[in-house]
Design a protein that fits this description.
It is a single chain. The chain has twelve helices and 13 strands. The strands form two sheets. Strands 1, 2, 3, 4, 5, 6, 7, 8, 11, 12 and 13 form an eleven-stranded mixed sheet that branches. Strand 1, helix 1 and strand 2 form a beta-alpha-beta unit. The relative contact order is 0.12.
Length: about 350
């Protein structure tokens, strides 16, 4: 009799780039989930530190002390060793008897391309019903995964669902429960949600985002037009265009170190405003009529100039230069990859 292959309900994708301390803290809380029908794929995004070695050391039980403000969720540490298969490339077929995999990429592909490698790996090999995109700088409540998956089981129309994201450093405050997309292309997060509520949303946050594999296969993966951010906004626009139902789950609690990775690598000098502005304007080109987009492009110059002057305290002449850069490259660029960012920041700022 031919053996029937059993696939996991969920594959959790965790992208690591030079952040092994955050990743192992996250993994401890993933391993303690009450819902246990899952596999974990850690994607090392070309780290140039000792992240791979440290994650493997954690799996072997060689790291006994994990820095955390959530001792009750992280400790006691899960029994070790945690068997983990190291995959040298995305084409390597996994041992499906394993529950944890570490996929090594040769270079930093950015968030979207890195996660897409993982999602394609799931659709090719692991074939789980659901895929959870999880930031490595998060800590999960033990019921987070089970409560997230239960909404899909109860409501077949749900295509994507996100956990309610709480601040890691202010754990009694909600950072976001998804949000709405405003008429001028900005988003507004929901900051309140009842534990019993499953809130319909227009904008889904990629911090802890679960999607049906069937949705990936029908509507595609994350856009790869952007190296730094924007991919969850574009996915939300695409989902709305195709009338896909997205929800935030009130009793799925995930604590996030908001902007931990970006603040380590970006100075607070207004550059991230330029990248955000270019991302958003380039993104909306594909969804808005040309005339409407041109109006937005013009008005955005004034909005972001005001933001630079007031929030970032950038001087008038420098703000003018920043605003001119946004207007110029929003019109000429069709994507914003790392080389585009480097060019703009090094040659125009």
């Amino acid at each position: 009799m031919e053996r029937t292959e059993v696939f996991p309900a969920v594959t959790i994708l965790i992208l690591n780039w030079n952040g092994w301390q955050d990743t192992i803290e996250c993994l401890e809380t993933v391993a303690k989930q009450e819902f246990t029908d899952f596999k974990v794929l850690i994607i090392d995004n070309g780290s140039d530190d000792d992240s791979v070695e440290k994650i493997l050391a954690w799996a072997l039980g060689e790291i006994k002390d994990i820095s955390t403000r959530f001792s009750g969720l992280v400790y006691p540490l899960v029994p070790k060793p945690v068997p983990i298969q190291v995959l040298p490339d995305p084409e390597t077929e996994p041992n499906k008897a394993m529950d944890y995999y570490l996929l090594k990429l040769d270079q930093n592909l950015g968030f979207a391309r890195g996660m897409n490698v993982g999602m394609r790996f799931v659709t090719s090999f692991l074939k789980s019903e659901f895929v959870l995109l999880l930031n490595n700088d998060t800590v999960l409540d033990p019921k987070a995964l089970g409560n997230l998956i239960s909404i899909f089981k109860r409501e077949p129309r749900v295509a994507m669902a996100q956990s309610t994201i709480w601040y890691y450093d202010w754990p009694d405050r909600i950072a976001n429960a998804g949000g709405i997309i405003l008429p001028w292309g900005q988003t507004r997060y929901y900051k309140k949600i009842k534990a019993s509520e499953n809130k319909k949303i227009e904008f889904i946050n990629g911090c802890a985002l679960c999607v049906r594999r069937s949705v990936l296969e029908q509507y595609g993966y994350l856009t790869e037009k952007f190296f730094f951010g924007e991919e969850d906004f574009e996915w939300s626009l695409r989902a709305r265009k195709n009338k896909l139902l997205m929800v935030a789950v009130g009793n799925s609690k995930v604590y996030h170190k908001i902007a931990a990775s970006s603040e380590r690598n970006w100075r607070k000098d207004g550059r991230k405003v330029i990248i955000f502005a270019l991302n958003r304007l380039i993104d909306l080109k594909d969804f808005w009529p040309r005339w409407q987009w041109q109006i937005l492009r013009f008005l955005s110059v004034f909005y972001f100039a005001f933001l630079l002057l007031t929030r970032y305290r950038i001087g008038g002449l420098k703000t003018l230069k920043f605003a001119r850069t946004i207007f110029k490259y929003a019109g000429s660029l069709k994507q914003l990859q790392k080389e585009d960012i480097d060019f703009v920041l090094n040659n125009e700022i």
